[in-house]
Amino acid sequence: MLKILGKASSINVRKVLWTCAELKLPYQREDWGSGFQATDTPAFLALNPNAMVPVIVDGDFVLWESNSILRYLVNQYNGGHLYPSAPRARAAVDQWLDWQATDLNDAWRYPFMSLVRQSPAHQDPAQLAASSALWNARMGLLEQRLQVTGAYIAGSDFSLADVVIGLSLNRWRRTPLEHPQLPALEAYHARLRQRPGFLEHGDNGLV
């Protein structure tokens, strides 16, 4: 059985859990990370030298890096409905997977550490204001995209892009900063709430 190493509160672990829910894929999860089993031990570093979660162990195959794990799972376990094989349709999904991991993550890092984690190193008012404005601007790009598709991030169908963007949207909505009115995003959030996997692993009270 597929083994997932990582605590369930981690946003990157929740990507994997939600994808497993969409695939109806059984798994065993072990708590690793802050507050649980340490990831800087030789045993864990042998699986992921970056000492980060999630890691999956699928038989004799080990993989880390959350978005790579998502791609592997849908390719290995008949997830073509989440990750189309046609080159252009797949590229549209990949585009948003990569954007979420780079541009969007970079935008929310400072406000999240400041307002949610209450990190003493992230309390500069000017930097917080600038970073919050950038995060809102990135969410505005998603608003524009959803105005075009009228449905999901990569197009008319739910895909892996919505797993990563959906969790990022949940983090944005639950972080106590000033949020602009983005009606297409709110309608999108309502659509995601119709999916049991999002309710269990996304919109479940965690940031």
Task: Supply database-style keywords.
207 residues, alpha+beta, Glutaredoxin, Glutathione S-transferase Yfyf (Class Pi), Chain A, domain 2, 2 domains, four-stranded mixed β-sheet, globular
Using the 3D structure, state the CATH architecture of the largest domain: Up-down Bundle
Evaluate the radius of gyration: 17 Å
Which topology of the largest domain does CATH recognise? Glutathione S-transferase Yfyf (Class Pi), Chain A, domain 2
The CATH C-level class name of the largest domain: Mainly Alpha
The rounded distance between the terminal residues' Cα atoms is 29 Å
User: What is the overall pLDDT average?
Assistant: 98
Q: H/E series, N to C?
A: EHEHEEHHHHHH
In order across it, which strands form the biggest sheet? 2-1-3-4
Helix-residue proportion: 55-70%
- β-strand percent reads 5-15%
Count of runs of 4 or more consecutive helical residues: 8
Main β sheet profile: 4 strands, mixed
- What shape does the CA trace take? globular
Number of beta-strand segments: 4
User: Which structural class matches the secondary elements?
Assistant: alpha+beta
Summarize the structure in short.
The chain has 207 residues and is of the alpha+beta class. Helix content is 55%, strand content 8%. It folds into two domains: 2-76, Glutaredoxin (3-Layer(aba) Sandwich), CATH 3.40.30.10; 87-195, Glutathione S-transferase Yfyf (Class Pi), Chain A, domain 2 (Up-down Bundle), CATH 1.20.1050.
